[in-house]
Specification:
Structural class: alpha+beta
CATH topology of the largest domain: Beta Polymerase, domain 2
Largest sheet: 7 strands, mixed
Radius of gyration: 35 Å
Order of helices and strands: EEEHHEEEEHHHHHH
Number of helices: 8
Strand order of the largest sheet: 2-1-3-7-6-5-4
Strand content: 5-15%
CATH class of the largest domain: Alpha Beta
Distance between the termini: 66 Å
Shape: rod-shaped
């Protein structure tokens, strides 16, 4: 756990109520400061267990934010993470996993004291964290898009993996679900929050650009979902093509075997009087005709192989 005193700009182990703090903790470390910061049981329990609920609640003592985001690991595995933030009048408490890049980013703010605006440190911290999440999401969406395009190339090359397709579709749908709330959460955090003083001059923060980035992020996530859904269409087209080819081959085999069956059936009848029954070359002529039929059928069948 890291406790950064925003008044002295130093790491401070003591949580003095007179000072302002930026606190970084994991969910397991949260219990040690729960009573000290008077955290309510509902939000505390939400920090202990990952869930899909994305929210920004304004309580009496603090605002509580819970958002989800994702990382793309090797072998196209998506790992969803949760970030929880308590924003009080005199502290910001960030709760996330220690192996998370957001954890490293906030730790870096404490150590290097950047990008802190000492005149508006609460606003600058929230703005910086939110901006970093958006940057991370863009980077991972680009990785996901590369994976989707690779699967599409595999489908074109007749390499079908329906399990991977379904997994990617599941991931993209969750990404859209988790990205959509950022459209209004960003406004509530950056433009309308009453817990900290929003600077009158916000030009250096480029809030308009941040709004645009959130919209582009949501559009990007929708585009990724559409690409993932198209993979299923390509897969279905491949399956239909293979099914049609198989039916065509079976139809040709039936067309080849039918004349042979008719010829053998006719000359297998037990009648004393039959045309050409006593013809000297009848047997060889029949075999020749059957051979011609088989040759034509095989030639046509090879066109579909």
């Amino acid at each position: 756990m890291y406790r950064f005193n925003l008044n002295t700009l130093n790491i401070d182990e003591n949580l003095n109520k007179k000072d302002d703090f930026l606190i970084l903790a994991t969910s397991m470390e949260l219990k040690s400061i729960k009573e000290r910061l008077s955290l309510d049981d509902d939000t505390f329990n939400e920090c202990l267990i990952f869930d899909e609920n994305i929210k920004l609640d304004s309580l009496d003592k603090y605002d509580f934010l819970s958002i989800n985001y994702f990382y793309i690991k090797k072998e196209a595995i998506a790992i969803f993470k949760e970030l929880n933030m308590y924003m009080s009048d005199n502290y910001i408490l960030v709760v996330c996993d220690e192996d998370d890049s957001i954890y490293s980013f906030i730790k870096n703010i404490m150590i290097n004291k950047k990008p802190l605006d000492t005149a508006n440190y609460f606003f600058s911290i929230v703005y910086s964290i939110f901006k970093q999440i958006i940057i991370n999401q863009f980077e991972n969406l680009e990785k996901l898009e590369d994976i989707i395009l690779k699967i599409e190339d595999d489908l074109i090359n007749d390499i079908n993996d329906i399990e991977k397709i379904n997994y990617i579709r599941f991931v993209t749908r969750n990404i859209v679900k988790n990205t959509r709330p950022l459209l209004y959460i960003s406004d509530m955090l950056i433009k309308e929050n009453s817990r900290y003083k929003i600077p009158k001059d916000t030009s250096k923060y480029n809030i308009q650009s941040l709004d645009f980035s959130v919209e582009k992020l949501y559009t990007f996530s929708l585009s990724s979902r559409e690409l993932a859904d198209k993979l299923l269409d390509i897969y279905s087209s491949n399956v239909n093509k293979k099914t049609n080819d198989l039916i065509t081959k079976l139809t040709l085999l039936t067309a080849i075997s039918s004349p042979l069956t008719i010829i053998s059936g006719v000359y297998g009848m037990n009648f004393k009087v039959m045309p050409f029954l006593e013809f000297q070359y009848g047997y060889y002529l029949t075999l020749f005709i059957m051979f011609i039929i088989i040759s034509i059928g095989v030639f046509k069948l090879k066109k579909y192989l």
